[in-house]
Amino acid sequence: MRARDLETLEFPRVLDAIAALARSAAGRQAVLELRPTSERAEAERRLDLLAELVALAAEAGRPPTADVPLLAPALAAAAPDGATLEPRRLAEVRDLLAAARQLRAYLRRDPARFPRLAAEGEAIDPVPEVSQPLGAALDETGQVRDDASPTLAAARAVTRELRGEMEARLLGMVRDPDMGSVIGEQYVTVRNGRFVVPIRTAAAGGFAGVVQDRSASGETVFMEPLFAVELNNRLLLAAKDEEAEERRVRSELTALVRAHAARLEAAERALAAADARGAAAQLAARHGCTRPVLGAPDVSLAAARHPLLLEAGRPVVAVDLRVPAERRGLAITGPNAGGKTVALKTLGLCALMAHAGLFVPAAEGSRLPLLGAVLVDIGDEQSIDRDLSTFTGHIENLARIATAAGPGTLVLLDEPGAGTDPVEGAALAVGLLTDLLARGPRVVFTSHFPQVKTFALAEPALDVAAFDVDPTTGAPRFKLAYHTVGQSLALPIARRHGLPARALETAERLLTGESRDLARAVARLEESRRGYEAEREEAERERARLAAAREEAEALAEDLRARQRRRWAEDLDASRRFLRELEARGRTVLEELRRRPEPATLRAFVREASEEIAAQTHAIEPEPSPTRPPVPGDLVEVAGRGIRGELVEIAGERARIQRGGLRFEVPSGQLRVVGDAPARERVAIEVDRPADAPAEINLIGQRVRDAIDALAAFLDRAVRAGLSEVRVVHGIGSGALRRAVHEFLESSPYCAGFRESEPAAGGAGVTIAELG
Question: Fewer beta carbons under 10 A from the terminal one: N or C of the chain?
Fold first, then answer.
């Protein structure tokens, strides 16, 4: 990519907008150094990483790249042998490594969904050989901790003790009322590294001490009392010891930084790259940018917008830019101030951004070919220093473009041939475009020349498009209409902006016949195009209405199907509940029959169950389709009643069906065959009646559990023997067995009631049970 083309398309300004979103100086520098690449693998790698980061940032926020200073000054200061870094430089290294650790964890948070980011995070080296000693030796402000070494801790303890003693003695002196005439003010300060007190100049001659300084006004001198000289000396020496030990600690830390400088630089590069990528992701999210498809056979930017106009907050009308695979270029025409140059720059910037690994301000699915270069001739090429006119500057640039153009390049030309005689300029433009098309690049250009428009219409390698205007006011609508060359509308625009009518009339008379005829033909074509466009828009609206109606019908059908599925599920659940209830009732009936065999109960249950089953079947099953006429032996159903059974015989209009032990007589015309008759099963219920059953049971002396088991068996035998009441002898004792017997009889289905026996027949020790 030529630097002049990047400048012409204002690619550096796009980088400036992204760099402003970076958090660190290194990140901003990494953004500004970003350049488009023609290597597809590298461009795709950048786009892949940005796509994963956009998705991750939407969930977890921006990458945790801190605003850390550039590492170069610290590394340069640490490079000489024996160098010692200042605490703030050591703190910069520590903070950078802390940010690297946080970034590493952020990038590795979901390797399954974001494998490329995870690999980037895995490659970040937090240099623990440096970060851990720095973290242990420096406090939050970057100063060396007391516990960085035992010697430093001891030295600082001595210094604090001496300083405390010094301050206490001097404060006692300046606050002494007897010293009021001598002391200037009641405070203690430091001059020349020694603790002093403020003494009035007039009283200094009578004060025993050493003058260290005086105030600007001359009214106060700062004197070191004689008793403080030795203490100050000791404090000074202790401070020197502390300083020497702190320097030694910082020297060791600096040696670690120097030894691992290359790894530290790699960590800074990783942070800078992540910060730059985070800024690009933020810009993409802010303006709705999407990932383009690189390496496509065509150019297709849907709803493209100029990124700098977006960043400036100006209203932007999106434009569709297309060059089909079977075409080599696109001619864009239309009125002045209609958006042609902005469209060219938008296409060029989107191409550069995509090849730099950035998302583009266009709709999802936008496509671009892989380009080796974007060659541009837009704007004023005049140079006073080089004695170039506008036309000469353009020609020099066009000559270089023609030399560099070839397959895999994109050429963007704004008004080729302008700046000279219109006839010669148009001829030159046609010649240049013919040569470029033969060289093989894709060419997108703008033009007002009628000859160039005619050339573009006749050239099968070119598509044509024009920026539309309002048919009534002539104002540009910034909408690109394809397959039309449009109108330049110079005279209508001049009229709308107040050019005198006499000037306009003269201009219209001076139009050559060919130009006037072409303008009229184009005007007629534009009128027809607008009519077709209106019809197409109406057809699109009708298609949209039909699509909406179809979607609504499909939604209603899906809703109906969903309701039907819910109904089926509800019916299935109801059927299951019904079967469970029926089964439970059946077990109850069988238990009752074992205790008291009554065939009438069984017949009533079978009849009720059959009717309920028939009702349930009719409620949940759809109407069966027509089948063959039924014959005896078939499994049939009575339509409308839900009764099923085996067909026994047909006698005219009546028929008999059998279901279990029951037979029904039904109209023969309502029968439908639903299957073959099931194999019959005979179920025999035998009731055992004991020949002789005792009417009394003696439970005295038994444990409660054994007694109740024996009582249950006794009652079952008594019921089957047909006894109406029995005697249960349990005795009185503690009353526990009596209570257990009564509780059992209350819950027993065999017992209809019970009472105590008469006093003469056992009284409270015997219970008479009445059997139901």
Answer: C
Query: What is the pairing mode between strands 462-469 and 329-333?
Result: parallel
Q: What is the CA radius of gyration of the chain?
A: 51
- Can you tell me which residue has the tokens 């069988």? 590
> Are 152 and 249 a contacting pair, CB within 8 Å?
yes
CB of 623 closer than 8 Å to CB of 629:
no
Q: Measured between alpha carbons, how far is 443 from 437 in angstroms, rounded to an integer?
A: 7
Which tens digit of pLDDT belongs to each residue from 426-470? Answer: 899 999 999 999 999 999 999 888 888 888 888 999 999 988 766
240, two tokens? 């020197």
Q: Show the tokens assigned to 190.
A: 């430091």
Q: What is the Cα–Cα distance from 772 to 766, expressed in whole angstroms?
A: 19
225's tokens: 């009392």
**Contacts of 630 by beta carbon, 8 Å cutoff, 6+ apart:** 636, 647, 650, 655, 671, 672, 673
Q: Is the pTM of this model over 0.70?
A: no
**What are the Cα distances from residue 205, in Å, to 165, 210, 393?**
26, 11, 86
- 352 and 278 in contact (C-beta within 8 Å)? no
C-beta separation of 102 from 86 below 8 A: no
The pair of structure tokens assigned to 764 is 């409270």
Nearest to 114 by CA among 284, 266, 268, 274: 274
The number of angstroms, rounded, from the C-alpha of 105 to the middle of its chain's C-alpha atoms is 18
- Cβ atoms of residues 137 and 146 within 8 Å: no
Query: In angstroms, how far is CA 629 from the centroid of its own chain?
Result: 64
Q: Report d(CA 304, CA 361) in Å as an integer.
A: 6
What are the structure tokens assigned to 28, written together?
């901003």
User: Rounded distance, CA 622 to CA 248, Å?
Assistant: 94
Phi, psi for 497 (deg, rounded to 5): -95, 15
In degrees and rounded to multiples of 5, residue 157 shows phi and psi of -65, -40
Location of structure tokens 């270069």: 373
Beta carbons of 300 and 110 less than 8 angstroms apart: no
- In the 8-state DSSP scheme, what is residue 180? T
375 neighbors 404 (Cβ within 8 angstroms): yes
User: Which residues are within 8 A (CB) of 73 and not within 5 positions of it... i.e. 6 or more apart?
Assistant: 89
Question: Sheet of 319-323: strands edge to edge?
Answer: 293-294, 367-368, 299-304, 319-323
Q: How far apart are the first and last CA of the chain?
A: 107
Residue with tokens 């279901």: 659
Rounded Cα gap, residues 373 and 371, in angstroms: 5
Identify the residue whose tokens are 């830019």.
Answer: 321
List b or e across 366-401, with b for residues whose CB sees 16 or more CB atoms inside 10 angstroms.
bbbbbbbbbbbbbeebeeeeeeeeebbbbbebbeeb
Closest CA to 495 of 505, 486, 507, 504: 504
Strands (E), 626-700: 634-638, 643-651, 654-659, 662-667, 671-676, 696-698
Tell me the residue type at 243: E
Q: Are 701 and 730 in contact (CB under 8 A)?
A: no
Distance CA 650, CA 673 (A): 13
Q: DSSP label at 142?
A: S
Both tokens of residue 560?
Answer: 């109906």
How many C-beta neighbours within 10 Å does residue 28 have? 21
Helices and strands, counts by H and E, the chain: 22, 23
C-alpha–C-alpha distance, residues 237 and 231, integer Å: 10
Asked whether the beta carbons of 528 and 483 are under 8 A apart, the reply is: no
Q: Which pLDDT score, from 0 to 100, does residue 558 have? A: 83
**Structure confidence by residue, pLDDT tens digits, 245-292:** 999 999 999 999 999 999 999 999 999 999 999 999 999 999 999 999
Contacts 24+ apart (CB under 8 A), 612-617: 612/578, 612/582, 613/582, 614/641, 614/642, 614/643, 614/644, 615/642, 616/574, 616/575, 616/578, 616/642, 617/642, 617/644
* Distance in angstroms (rounded) separating the CA atoms of residues 377 and 414: 6
